[in-house]
Amino acid sequence: MTRRRIVRCLRVLALAAVPVGLVAAGLAVPAPVAAQPPAAAAPLAIEAPVQAAELDRIAVIEKVSPAVVAVCQVGGRGVGSGVIIDPEGYALTNHHVVVPAGQGGPVMQAGLADGVLYDAVLVGHDMLGDVALIKLLPKEPGKPFPFVRLGNSDDARVGESAFAAGNPFSVALDFTPTITFGIVSGVNRYEPLGSRPGGQEYTDCIQVDVPINPGNSGGPLFNMRGELIGINGRISLEKRGRVNVGVGYAISINQIKNFLGHLYAGHAADHATLGALVLTENEDADLARMVVRQILDDSDAARRGLNTGDQLVTFAGRNMSSTNHYKNILGTFPAGWRVPITYRRERETREILVRLQTSQAAAKEERPAPGGPMPPRPLQIEPPAPKVETPASKLFRPAKGMANAYFNDLASDKLLTAVKKHGDFGAAGGTWGAEGTFEAQDRKGDMRLEVAPGTGDDAKVTLKLNIEHKLLPLKQTDPREQAEPIGSGGLMMALYHYHRFLTVGKKGFEGEFLHGGSEPFYPPAAEPAPKGGLAATRVDADVMRTRHGPVTCKWYFGKADAKLQGFEVYLTKDADPCEVFLSDYRDVGNGRQLPHRIECRHADKRYAVLTVARWALGGN
User: Fold this and answer.
1) Which pLDDT score is estimated for 100?
2) Domain that holds residue 567
3) What is the DSSP code (8-state) at residue 424?
4) Which residues of 254-276 are buried (b: 16+ CB within 10 A; e: fewer)?
5) What is the rounded distance in angstroms from the CA atom of residue 71 to the CA atom of residue 89?
6) Average pLDDT across the chain, whole number
7) Do 596 and 509 share a structural domain?
8) What 8-state DSSP symbol labels residue 535?
9) Same domain, 351 and 425
10) Phi, psi at residue 221, to the nearest 5°?
11) How far is CA 437 from the centre of its chain?
């Protein structure tokens, strides 16, 4: 139909719609009124709370972005991400990022959102946990770096919003971070080691649907307050290619906090094992019971009383419900830490404090059954010397068992400087004496102590607790003689090392004198036991490790005040140490403070408490 015919038909239809009476009367038919366009609709209003939430999110991202790091090989080729956690330029990243970044060595470069490429060096690493600490060198000496605040990953909840920052696929050539947004999909996830040697085990990690892609590794995961709650490290790639599929895993910041003291001190950190095989008693039960199936006779757990058949109720304060749950929690602790454990035997519940072992015992612990295959474990290998010289190369010193001994020296010097606030004993290296009283389980009376360092190997310790005991610490090398008085585990040897540590320092320990990272310390609780059990007595401490002759010691300094809380003396590697706890510090002259209450414990039993009425120090 042509356009003219269409118009004619419309006119006919319009006339047909006019009332017949009007046409017959000869009244004019009004022309049709043109259709009026509708009034313009007002745009939809965005609610103020929605706008405010968006602005808050933008503000948080702007605040933390300057601290996000693009980790690069020397020359600027990007390989991963990281985040600065203190103003001196220390940054967290993944271990698997720093290996290619350092090209097998400890130096690399790192770009920030300011567009500047900084020299950087490896400080410490945790190979199994896939975490590394690096340090950026400022362009201007002393100028602080932007940094972020560490959050509490235990507060993360499924469904809450989170965002990641990093440099995926190295798309930001000016190092400005890419931000991706999503939710927490799961918490307390366990991603096992698998069969690949040198792999990583992700324990107690956070699962997110935040887009994380290659290049995001080592970058931060933030909550919406801008707090660091994890380090992104692993994504699901199986059979899907190297793109994000909505399943990513971040190492929880609370696990990293446990290792952070070791990383700052330049260690190649090792994860802990219990020395026992713990499995679910009955997988079909509504409430699973975790039961000790096997235990190593020489493990600290066995010496503390744990045995096969015991039900493991809590581990480090967390309830046990499955084998996965147990492995998940165990994997968050460094080797050597002490943790409280609650177990049930028949109808009695007991709480013990257990020293966790190193992963060298893991093969025995993780064997699923006698004669079964043992999973491979990564080796903590020291990084080789720098292949490329940069200004950061001067901040690296290799040493056996260390990631970077240069930073261990820094940590040791920093701690010992803080310790001197309580007195410099370097000039008091002569004979020390103490008088007072003692109290043991079955006796009490007067106490007299003398530590004479001698001039060669003629050092002598005398301790009178009703009966006088004498020890020549450098001549009497039999551990049975060094363990005097009987039942103390070596109290006189411990007091000799205490005198040597305070007066001689590093020069007095030819075997080892290292910062040992950070550990919890548990002073003996007063009777009755405090509410909350052993966890209520915990003191966070910095640790020094020493060795003089065959004797090794661990020294615990409170983080709050750098005061020596106590120390442990090991006469042999696998025996219970002599534990010495120090308190009631008082001034003894020349700005020096010494404890006036010394408690000695051995094998979970209190040997004696020495109450000092007077100290007499040799020298000045």
Assistant:
1) 86
2) 420-616
3) -
4) bbbebbbbbbbbbbbbbbbbbbb
5) 13
6) 87
7) yes
8) G
9) no
10) -110, 125
11) 42
Look at residues 405, 534, 396 and name the one whose alpha carbon lies nearest to residue 102.
396
Sheet holding 578-589, edge to edge: 467-471, 460-465, 444-452, 432-440, 605-616, 592-602, 578-589, 564-570, 551-558, 539-548, 512-521
Return the closest-CA partner of residue 126 out of 134, 116, 114, 137: 134
Residues in the chain: 620
The span from the CA of 111 to the CA of 114, in Å, is: 8
The amino acid sitting at 90 is Y
Distance CA 452, CA 459 (A): 6
Quote the tokens at residue 457.
């190997």
Predicted confidence (pLDDT) per residue in 357-378, tens digit = 986 444 444 443 333 333 444 4
235 in a structural domain: no
Tell me, yes or no, whether 352 and 428 share the same domain. no
CATH of the domain at 322: 2.30.42.10
Give buried/exposed letters for 484-519 (b at 16+ CB in 10 A, else e): bbebbbbbbbbbbbbbbbbbebeebbeeebbbbbbb
Q: Establish if 261 belongs to a structural domain.
A: no
Report yes or no: 169 and 214 within 8 Å, Cβ to Cβ.
yes
Is residue 37 assigned to a domain?
A: no
CB 54 within 8 A of CB 47: no
Instruction: Determine which helix (DSSP H) or strand (DSSP E) holds 375, and give its type and residue range.
Output: none
| Residues contacting 164, CB < 8 A, separation 6+ | 179, 180, 208, 210, 211, 212, 216, 219, 220, 221, 222, 232, 248, 250
* 528 cis-preceded (ω within 30 degrees of 0): yes
Tokens linked to 466: 């009703």
DSSP letter string over 172-216? -TT-PPEEEEEEEEEEEEEE---SSTT---EEEEEEE-S---TT-
Would you call the peptide bond into 485 cis, given omega within 30 degrees of 0 as the criterion?
yes
Instruction: Please state whether 566 falls in left (phi above 0), alpha (psi between -120 and 50) or beta.
Output: left
- pLDDT tens-digit profile of 571-616? 998 789 999 999 999 999 999 999 999 999 999 899 999 999 999 9
209 φ/ψ sector (left φ>0, alpha ψ -120 to 50, else beta): alpha
Encoded tokens for 74: 């020397």
pTM of the shown model:
0.87
Q: What are the residues whose beta carbons fall under 8 Å from the beta carbon of 543, sequence distance 6 or more?
A: 261, 515, 516, 517, 518, 519, 554, 555, 556, 557
In angstroms, rounded to a whole number, what is the distance separating the alpha carbons of residues 183 and 192?
23
For 599, the 3-state DSSP assignment is strand
**Same-domain pairing of 346 and 426:** no
Distance of CA 272 to the CA centre of its chain: 12
Rounded CA-CA distance 605/352 in Å is 12
**pLDDT, position 11:** 47
Classify residue 244: in a domain, yes or no.
no
Total domain count, the chain? 2
- What are the Cα distances from residue 460, in Å, to 438, 478, 493, 610? 21, 15, 10, 19
Of 190, 209, 193, 189, the closest CA to residue 201 belongs to 193
Structure tokens at 317: 């304060």
* Per-residue pLDDT, 371: 36
Pairing of strands 131-136, 117-126: antiparallel
What type of residue sits at position 370? P
